[in-house]
Design brief:
Structural class: mainly alpha
Shape: globular
Radius of gyration: 20 Å
Order of helices and strands: HHHHHHHHHHHH
Helix content: over 70%
Length: 391
């Protein structure tokens, strides 16, 4: 089936990306505080919740990326965004204790359909920006807007916790309305697609690209393993540090803001491209800094460590996405694979934490289990890459 052309301008897709990131980041972060407040979820329940969400995202992003190449990016975006808005606007009503599992699982399915399509259509929309420039702006847009949204939602959540549902729901409704009104009116942009514009990667050997891609995948998967576990237990980390709900949400935003700052750096400076040392460094710094956050009961140390983790995670994510789309023509499928890899981390981290909490009734059992798995995955993954490099 012939791939559908982009129906909006490049700048319009960036605007949609920002609105979508604000909605998704706000919901997936603050819903963990909602479950603790409304349903009395423990840290183990929240870890199971994030694990289920991660598993759903692995499948949906992998399939969603392949479908986007065949069904058309805009068509898939419209359907998935409408579904997300309807789900969130209605999802907060049931008082059943299992409601968060149903809502977050279904919401993960919509995200798996939207993010690979957005990443692909930004490459296909006509414009003058090269692939590295487009991916750099893409990372900055979703990370910065999402971080600012979570930071600003903290006082709103303290006053009215249902903001975690209705504000993202309204944002999704606005996205869908905009795409419907502008349908077919904004796609006559000036310039070429990202694939038609030359960039440095055109002259890099395939074997080097593959090695870089695998390294970035390991670092990104481990990064999401750690941040998903941290977000799940963030309400309880805040309690351990003596923070209010508002301040605990602000603590989470430290990592999000630092990640956004990192994306700005790695967008403006392309010197990290095709140098494996940067993703190796991110793979090492990420688990080390998160160990400080999860195991040391000191607010100042947590802030510094979260900032370090955010910078490391921005490097691993930027590398994973960039090297994923810098290969072949099936941009939706490659973006979906990148999203599935990070979804695997979102699944594995909380799952390890929940299993650790269930098996060992001891302080920090969940945290130690997650960190142990993260360090082992990093060592095993990088060790495999090094072995493959000698063959």
């Amino acid at each position: 089936m012939k791939r559908s052309l982009a129906s909006l301008g490049l700048h319009e897709y960036y605007a949609l990306e920002g609105a979508h990131s604000l909605a998704c980041t706000l919901f997936t972060t603050c819903v963990m505080f909602w479950t603790e407040r409304r349903y009395g979820y423990s840290s183990a329940w929240n870890l199971w919740l994030n694990a289920v969400q991660g598993l759903a995202y692995v499948v949906s992003s992998w399939v969603g990326g392949m479908l986007a190449d065949r069904l058309g990016y805009d068509r898939q975006l419209r359907v998935a965004i409408v579904a997300a808005g309807v789900l969130l606007l209605c999802g907060w009503l049931p008082a059943w204790r299992g409601t968060p599992f149903v809502v977050t699982t279904l919401y993960a399915l919509t995200m798996g359909a939207t993010w690979p399509a957005l990443e692909a259509v930004i490459l296909h929309a006509p414009g003058r920006l090269t692939m590295p420039q487009r991916m750099g702006i893409y990372n900055v847009m979703w990370a910065v807007v999402g971080a600012v949204g979570v930071f600003g939602s903290a006082p709103l959540f303290a006053l009215r916790p249902s903001v975690v549902f209705w504000l993202p729901g309204v944002l999704h409704a606005g996205e869908a309305l905009y795409m419907w009104v502008r349908r077919g009116r904004g796609g006559e942009g000036v310039g070429l697609t990202a694939m038609e514009l030359p960039h440095r990667g055109n002259h890099v050997a395939f074997l080097l690209k593959r090695r870089l891609l695998y390294t970035a995948w390991v670092a990104n998967a481990v990064g999401y393993m750690l941040c998903a576990a941290f977000v799940a237990v963030a309400p309880f980390v805040g309690q351990r540090l003596g923070l209010s709900v508002r301040d605990a949400i602000w603590l989470v935003s430290v990592y999000l803001i630092a990640r956004g700052v990192g994306f700005v750096l790695f967008w403006r400076w392309e010197g990290w491209h095709y140098h494996v040392v940067w993703n190796v460094a991110a793979a090492i710094v990420g688990p080390a800094s998160m160990a400080v956050v999860l195991l040391i009961s000191h607010a100042g140390a947590a802030v510094v460590a979260l900032a370090m983790f955010g910078l490391a995670h921005s490097m691993s994510y930027a590398g994973s996405l960039y090297y994923s789309v810098d290969r072949g023509e099936e941009k939706g499928a490659h973006s979906g694979l990148h999203e599935a890899i990070l979804g695997l981390g979102i699944f594995a981290g909380p799952l390890a934490g929940a299993a650790g909490a269930a098996l060992w009734r001891a302080p920090f059992a969940a945290e130690v289990t997650v960190l142990t798995m993260a360090f082992c995955a990093t060592i095993a993954g990088l060790g495999w890459i090094y072995t493959a490099r000698r063959e």
